[in-house]
Each structure stands twice: as structure tokens, then as C-alpha cells.
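Issue 218. Parser rejects a valid record. Input:
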Amino acid sequence: MLERGQPLHKKWQLIPGDTDVLITHGPPKGIGDEANLGFKCQNVGCIDLLNRIQQLSLKAHIFGHIHEGYGEYQKGQTTLINASTCTARYEPRNAPILVDV
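Output the parser choked on:
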């Protein structure tokens, strides 16, 4: 639970280069991270996390936190999954997502 900026950037850089599957609490910027903030939607993911995953050859990145972003995404060879089980109304209705690695 670091603030965004240099301290968090340094933590993301500690992810080993040979990681196949990455699990984080929150999403990278622009992927499964669009949150409804009252009268507008905004991408709230972490840009430093996005930059780090683009440096890696991940098979899958699994995250949650932003319920509105539930679903499966593809970026190059990486499958990204927002596995939030709850809907934006905090109802546990989202089905599990299976990934083959």
C-alpha cells in the first residue's frame, strides 16, 4: 500500500524478470481499471505497473480491485485478468475466470 511515485516504482522493479504469472491487488493503467467516479469514468490503474509488465514476458497478470473492470484482456502475448468477484454494486456475481498457462 505505497503511494504512487518513486517508492512504488522501486517495488515494481523488484518483480523478477523471469516471472510467468503475476498477481497484484490493483490493475495496470488502462487495462481493466476504468472506475465510475460519479459523473465520469476514469482509468485509475498504476502507470508504473503498466511500464513494468511491458518489460516482462508474462503469460498472465491477474488482479482485481476495480470491480467495473472485471474481465479478460490481451496485451501482446500476455493475458490480463481483472478477477473481481463483485460487481460495481459489491454483489458477488462475477463468474470465476480460468486461465491456462
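Fixed in the parser; the record now loads. Residues 47-55 form the longest helix (9 residues).
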